[in-house]
Amino acid sequence: MKPGRNDPCSCGSGEKYKKCCGRVIPLVSALRDCGSCIACCEGWLVCTVLGQEIVPGNPCRHASKAGCGIYAERPESPCRNFVCAWVLPDSPFPETFRPDSLGVIIVPVKWREQPAYLLRSAGRDPDEDLLAWMQRFSMQSGRPFFYEIAGEKLGFGPELFQKDMLARAARGEPMW
User: pTM of the full predicted structure?
Assistant: First the structure.
């Protein structure tokens, strides 16, 4: 039986159901743009842009505090092909999840042809608050996510996802 909104959450968090697993996560309907966020251009997502290798410590030479200097003319690969989950139409992620503010880039990926997310460091590992938010979102949406803490690759998702990840680990395969 589903708990009432003011009942203690059945997950054991000590929070009311409405503030925990029963929390409604609104979709953001306004279109967002990168603006001055250049987290993906700072090397956190290793790539090559117009012959320049982009890695942490070697950001894209076209990126500045004002944003991408070649945004309108940026190359198809990797720039136009890259998708940041924060800027997607109807992104479920709040304004505070903008990568340059959050310190983490959320990248949409697929798991078994279903939507999933990869949390990539953009200066810091995901913290407890972000992971708790993502876990609630995953439980509500059924969308798993992958992340890394201190170099250890981890994931969170529904039971089938967990079984898949345990099987990958048993075969010595990376989680992602």
Answer: 0.76
